[in-house]
Specification:
This protein is an alpha+beta fold. The chain is built from seven helices and four strands. The chain starts with 13 loop residues before the first helix and ends in an 8-residue tail after the last strand.
């Protein structure tokens, strides 16, 4: 029998599970700092979502979470430490949503403005470069919406949530 497990499965240290190993105030401060740091990184680095989360973006988020864990917790943890930390992160997430809903100036900070990628059938390459969107990606998204030629697109936007929206040009285009 291994020494890694107690002989009695009911021999559980409940006091150790529910006692704090780090000050709750320190946990709240660490959680607050990491929440805002991660928010800023994710808001300004991972805006783009051409269809879905890419493998490298997903990997980045996982590594970021793992790296942030030790910064938020500090030393060995208990369940109480985790509950305070999770509560702090949920609080900031809720407050950010609430404040964004109530105050437009905060929403402008929390949500990226939409970005025009196609205007009147012309690709706006500077905006595409800014978001690292290739012609192939953009054309594939346009075809996905049943439009064969970019010349028939009135507007194509990269929305704040990373999705793309398309406005078709209803007028037949005059031959040049």
């Amino acid at each position: 029998m291994s020494d890694a497990y107690p002989v009695n499965i009911f021999d559980i240290d409940l006091a150790g599970i529910f006692s704090f190993t780090v000050s709750p105030l320190e946990l709240m401060l660490r959680g607050t700092l990491m929440y805002w740091f991660l928010f800023i990184v994710l808001r300004f680095v991972l805006r783009r979502d051409v269809g879905s989360l890419g493998a490298s973006d997903f990997l980045f988020v996982v590594i970021l979470g793992d790296a942030a864990q030790n910064s938020m917790i500090g030393s060995p943890t208990s369940a109480a430490d985790g509950m305070v930390l999770i509560g702090t992160l949920v609080f900031w997430s809720y407050m950010l949503d609430f404040m964004s809903f109530r105050f437009p100036v905060i929403q402008r900070f929390t949500s990226a403005p939409r970005l025009c990628l196609v205007r009147d059938g012309k690709l706006l390459r500077r905006n595409m470069r800014r978001e690292f969107i290739t012609d192939q990606e953009l054309n594939a998204k346009i075809r996905h919406e049943g439009v064969e030629d970019v010349a028939t697109v009135k507007r194509r936007y990269l929305e704040a949530d990373g999705e793309m929206s398309l406005i078709r040009n209803d007028e037949p285009r005059a031959a040049a």
